Amino acid sequence: MRSNLNRLxxxxxxxxxxxxxxxxxxxxxxHLRPPARPSADLRQALTAITPDALRGDLSFLSSDALxxxxxxxxxxxxxxxxxxxxxxxxGLEAPVHDTYFQNADLTEYLKAEPGKHTIRxxxxxxxxxxxxILRGSDPVLRDTYIIVxxxxxxxxxxxxxxxxxxAKPASDHDEIYNGANDDGSGTVSVIAIAxxxxxxxxxxxxxxxxxxxxxxxxGLLGSRYYAEHPVVPLKQTIGNINLxxxxxxxxxIKKGSASLTGFDFTSLGALFERAGESYGIRVYQDKRSxxxxxASDNYSFAKxxxxxxxxxxxxxxxxxxxxxxxxxxxDYSQMAQIDKLTAAVVWELANxxxxxxxxxxxxxxxxxxxxxxxxxxxxxxxxxx
Length: 385
Fold this sequence. Notes:
Elements: H1 2-21, H2 40-45, H3 51-61, H4 74-89, E1 101-105, H5 107-111, E2 126-134, E3 145-151, H6 180-198, E4 207-213, H7 221-228, E5 237-243, E6 257-260, H8 268-278, E7 282-284, H9 298-302, E8 308-312, H10 332-351, H11 366-375
Helix pairs in contact: 3-6, 3-10, 4-6, 6-10, 8-10
């Protein structure tokens, strides 16, 4: 007994020090903390996130009328206007010259990789990132930001999708890649979470940026543009939670579960794991999670050292980049729960004096930790703001 006690005392001291400093425990110690319990105010606000509300938004966003939301296209512009209207209805701040649109010039990015697309670049290729801000309530912490994001573009039609899909067209004359799960599901989730936070009686301490990107399917272009031209300095952005493919429950992740790309790259994994326990969703470290870390818009921020992950309910699923990724196939009840647990994580981050961090024990994060040292001026982003 005495020898066991001697071994446990140093661990207890370390844990006490972490709690005293207000730091997050890493994912390996997640079981030492209880499930995240949202405040009564947040629970009430989250009642607005319903399967029916998500279905209503997604049935329009992924309808044939928007022709697959290719970058660039008229359908993508309609989608941008739709998202902006939802941000406006929620009362989000319009941060770009009193609009929700950041005009992203993708021309040079596309010129650099001419063999990967058929887009003409002899004239400017401009699309829109859609951005809304919920200003925080703390006089100091409100100048720090958490980004909640998704991409709203997809691969368009049979005419535009060459090189972006290996799926064979069916014989029913369907020509539109609707992209309901990829990533209409993430887009309507960002809208829903933004609306819930806007309904809070007391706003969180930090500010929240809700953002949907163009050009992801062409190589993370919209998020790349934002990271190079941020509306608030990246050094004031403490983290990014990206949502992608959160709507299908018939993919390679078991129904009732979700995962993060690069699960243990940051301290966010442990937070999501705890929040999932409160909402009946098992959030776990899948063996494939590292493989997909660079495959979504979170990577545009990771390159600058901003701690981030992408949450998904499937890494791969039937109809991926196929003509039948359509809104009736979405599991809206599960998606609503995933959105609520995401909101619980955002709430905890937005009210904490500490920020997410990269896992220093994971050698795969060294590149991102080095970038963080540059972005944040060499100062630890765990320091209380």
